[in-house]
Amino acid sequence: MSRPLCVMLVATEASGDDRGAGLAAALRDRLGGNVRFIGAGGQKMAAEGVQSVFDISELSILGVVDALVIYRRAMKLVDLAVDLAVREQPDAVILIDSWAFSLRVALAP
């Protein structure tokens, strides 16, 4: 039996968590038990079996001032997501939302 397909899903907002959960459910329906999910998401993605490296509630912000306040923490969370990708070597990475966060994950060396 071959190893399961490893899919990394990254969502940092509630709407992305919802879409990520839907995608995980659809992929599981299509692929059966031959898929595992890793990444970053919220409660909905967790309910679909996504093993998240952090909870997106840490990134729940409104406005520029809030963004400045959590900037250092957000960069550490980017590092956690990148470290997960390097360690797990997923077959596919799907970056769902938050271009500022996702672009940093995508462009990491």
Tell me about this structure.
By secondary structure, this protein is of the alpha/beta class. It has one domain: 3-Layer(aba) Sandwich (Rossmann fold), CATH 3.40.50. Helix content is 53%, strand content 21%. The chain has a four-stranded parallel sheet. Helix 1 (14-31) links the parallel strand 1 and strand 2 (35-41).
Give a brief outline of the structure.
The protein is an alpha/beta fold.
Descriptive tags:
alpha/beta; Rossmann fold; about 20% strand; four-stranded parallel sheet; about 110 residues; globular
Give the structural class.
Answer: alpha/beta
What strand order characterises the main sheet?
Answer: 3-2-1-4
Helix content: 40-55%
- What is the number of strand segments? 4
CATH class descriptor? Alpha Beta
Largest sheet: 4 strands, parallel
CATH fold name = Rossmann fold
Helices, strands, pairings?
Elements lengths: L4 E6 L3 H18 L3 E7 L1 H5 L2 E6 L7 H26 L3 E4 L3 H9 L2
Parallel strand pairs: 1-2, 1-4, 2-3
Helix pairs in contact: 3-4
